[in-house]
């Protein structure tokens, strides 16, 4: 049967999953600064994976907002800022995106631009829902 359960899909290798988990915990203990026990390292691995997932979702939303109504560059910058501590390429991209954002002399994005972009997004989404489902 060569390791298949239903003929098509290979059976999961229990040893492989254990080795993968052990490698992730060892890497977290080696590179992390706050983990002293295996349980803390496992928890931090899950937190790190959660941050990466949330960051990628926000980056995808920002990319979708570039051609659609909404603050695409701001959302993209927010997603990259979430990803930057965990993913090396995100920090380099964040520097490039920040150069394209409108900012004042201190490098801060004016409140009017942030509020205006969010307002346009909410109005556009509400109009789309009304146009698609309610009218």
Q: What features would you describe in this structure?
A:
By secondary structure, this protein is mostly helical. The chain has one domain (14-134). Helix content is 70%, strand content 0%. It contains five helices and no strands. It has helices at 14-31, 38-65, 72-83, 88-100, 111-134. Helix 1 (14-31) packs across helix 2. The chain is extended. The mean pLDDT is 76.
Largest sheet entry: none
Kindly state the percentage of residues in helix: over 70%
What percentage of the residues does DSSP assign to strands (E)? Answer: under 5%
What is the count of β-strands?
0
Q: How many domains make up the 3D coordinates? A: 1
Give the topology, please.
Blueprint: H1 14-31, H2 38-65, H3 72-83, H4 88-100, H5 111-134
Helix pairs in contact: 1-2, 2-3, 3-4
Question: What is the gist of this entry?
Answer:
The protein is 70% helix and 0% strand. It contains 5 helices and no strands.
What labels would you give this structure?
135 residues; mainly alpha; 5 helices
